[in-house]
Every structure is written in C-alpha cells, then in structure tokens.
Design goal:
The protein has six helices and no strands. The protein is an all-alpha fold and 179 residues long. The mean pLDDT is 96.
C-alpha cells in the first residue's frame, strides 16, 4: 500500500523502478482529477467557465475515452468497449465532450472508473510479460506504434493538462481550490 497525501492521492514512489515511477505518477494524476470532481452533482458537472463549453462531466467522459483508446484499443489491440464502439465518430468527433451533459454523475463516474480499471489491467498484463518497450498493437492516426512507455507518459501529460482545466472548473462551481 502506498502512502497517500492529504487529498487521498497515492504518492508516487521516490525510489521505484521506471514502471513503478511512471504508473505512480499516472495514478497520482488520476487521483487529482477524481478529487477535483468529487462530491459534485449534475449541475456542478455541467458548469462551464467563460466562453468555453468544457465541463467536468465532459472531462470525465473524455478521459474515460482516452483511457480506453490508449490502453485497450491501441496498446492491446482489443476493440473499443461500449459506449465508444457505438459512436459515429466521423459524424460527431466531440461526442465524448458534449454527450456528457445528458449523463448522470453516477454514470459518468462509473464509466471513468471502469475505463481506468481496464487500463490498469491492460498495463499490468504488458508489464508482467513484455515491459515498457512493447509497442502498441494498433497504430495511432499517424500510423505509428508507440511503446507502452510513451503511452504512459502521454497519459500523464493528458491528465496533467486536463487537471489544470479541472482546477478552474471546480473553483467556478463552489470555490474549492487546492493543489
């Protein structure tokens, strides 16, 4: 069991190997995001800031999609699970963002948690068999097959960037601020 900080986030290991350090930082970023969304109702998850249409609910659904895209679809080559497999992404490339407004908080959190759980399992399977150098089975839109190491770093970056958005959105909802 790892140590947790005052917000309930797991502290990345100070002396872990590469895989433990990278997964530790990804879990820290995930927990930061969960903390920013915690205890919000539907109105809180639909709140926007200024002219942006971004919401915490949209971020929850988008990050669930990102998790499944990188760890399930790309890294392992498995098909996208529901609901992603039923979306016409060509007709509506931002479906994950705007469709969240019609979802309950319970549904959004369950969707995100299920995606994170699948990602953790997918990554654990790779780490026990092939390691961080293994290449993604399915290519990116550009045709590349990034390593599991690259995918981990990309997800850390994705969460860190969106955690900045989540900070602003959460503060606009109820004034809650913090790291």
């Amino acid at each position: 069991m790892s140590d947790v900080d005052e917000y309930g986030r797991p502290v990345p290991p100070l002396d872990g190997d590469e895989a433990a350090t990278l997964t530790g930082f990804l879990d820290f970023q995930r927990a930061t995001f969960a903390w920013k969304c915690r205890d919000l109702d539907a109105a809180g998850l639909r709140a926007t800031v200024g002219p942006s249409s971004m919401t915490l609910g949209g971020l929850l659904k988008h990050l669930a999609y990102v998790e499944d895209t990188w760890f399930t679809l790309r890294l392992h080559g498995a098909p996208h699970p529901a609901p992603w497999n039923a979306v016409d992404w060509h007709a509506d490339p931002d479906w994950d963002w705007h469709s969240a407004a019609a979802d309950t908080p319970e549904h959004l959190f369950a969707l995100w948690h299920a995606s994170v759980d699948r990602s953790r399992a997918a990554l654990a399977a790779v780490l026990t068999t092939a390691g961080l150098a293994v290449r993604a089975v399915n290519p990116t839109r550009e045709g590349t097959h990034p390593s599991a190491r690259w995918i981990l770093c990309h997800l850390i970056e994705e969460y860190a960037r969106h955690n900045g958005h989540a900070d602003l959105l959460r503060e606009s909802v109820d004034g809650r601020t913090g790291e």
